[in-house]
Amino acid sequence: MEQPDAVIHQPVRLKIMSALKALPAGTQLEFVRLKALVGATEGNLGAHLQTLETQGYIASEKDFVGKKPRTRITLTKEGRRAFEAYVDYLRDIVGNI
Amino acid sequence: MPLSNSEAKLALNDIARMGRRSFNAHGYAAAAPQLMLWGALWFLGYGGTYFFHAYAGWIWIGVTIAGSIGSFWIGKASKPVTAPKFSWRIFFTWLAALGAISSVLAIFAPFTGTQIGTLFPLITGWAYVFLGVWLGPRFVMAGMLIVGLTLFGFFRLSPEHFILWMAFVGSVTLIGTGLWLRRA
């Protein structure tokens, strides 16, 4: 990889991907919990999630708990692979110097 | 533009930090309802033992069955979407723990009621400390609190007061810690 994956490299999206990658495969993270972890506003987080979903790196599921809407996000296989490639790219740079 | 060495190091540190936070928060969120369930059952077990001493054995059998069913149900509701339907590793871990405790009890028996009432909270407390070493510092604090309060009750209180004390320790520490973990 000559260049970092631009979709993942953006700071907020990097936090999102790191938070999801740390969990067992298939684990869903609630939007509110992700928002607290990342420290982003609701609108900002929503926009970055949309970018990641368009790229196929994450999948989201919307439902209701009682009357409250709930959004849960999970890392896709493609997202997991892309993130691992991104981390390998960083390690190569650190290791090469 | 390719990244510099320092930028790459910074990004790797950010990834590690966020990963650790996410992993800990996930563990806390999964454990919180379990702690609150067992805190309530612990209260019922010791409270029931205090008021209906003759039926203590039955009360604890009921508490254990209710807790096992409740824990299983909570675990099932929060498992990853791609997780296997039934984990034999978890089943055999519980079986091994049960075997280990039963064999130790068989060697050291007979116990007084107070000793039995102290042993299981101590095992629970230390289990949280061990878990916390891997899953997050809040488990360590919860475990140390349970161990400390249990030992205080054993060495400082009369057997009658000890049972009530343990009802208090269970409800306050486990339910309180569960609420604390949920907010993490």
Number of domains of chain B: 1
Beginning-to-end CA distance, first to last residue of chain A = 17 Å
As residue ranges, the low-confidence spans of chain A are none
Distance between the termini of chain B: 38 Å
Concise synopsis of the structure shown:
The complex is a heterodimer of chains A (97) and B (184). Chain A is of the alpha+beta class.
Describe this structure in words.
The complex is a heterodimer of chains A (97) and B (184). Chain A has 97 residues and is of the alpha+beta class. Chain A has a single domain, classed as Orthogonal Bundle (Arc Repressor Mutant, subunit A). Chain A contains 5 helices and 3 strands; from the N terminus they run ααβααββα. Chain A has a 3-stranded antiparallel β-sheet. In chain A, strand 2 and strand 3 form a beta hairpin. The longest helix of chain A has 20 residues, at 77-96. Chain A starts with 5 loop residues before the first helix and ends with a helix. The model of chain A has no long low-confidence stretch (mean pLDDT 92). Chain B is mostly helical and 184 residues long. Chain B has one domain. The model of chain B has no long low-confidence stretch (mean pLDDT 87). Chain A binds chain B through residues 2-4, 9, 11, 14-15, 18-29, 33, 36-38, 74, 87, 90-91, 93-94, 96-97, and chain B through 1-5, 8-9, 11-12, 14-15, 18-23, 25-26, 29, 80-83.
Features:
heterodimer, A: 5 helices, elongated, B: 184 residues, mainly alpha, 85% helix, 0% strand
Topology (SSEs and partners):
The complex is a heterodimer of chains A (97) and B (184).
Chain A (H helix, E strand, L loop, with lengths): L5 H4 L1 H11 L7 E2 H8 L3 H14 L2 E8 L2 E8 L1 H20 L1
Antiparallel strand pairs in A: 1-3, 2-3
Chain B lengths: L4 H47 L4 H22 L10 H21 L4 H23 L1 H20 L2 H24 L2
Helix pairs in contact in B: 1-2, 1-6, 4-5, 4-6, 5-6
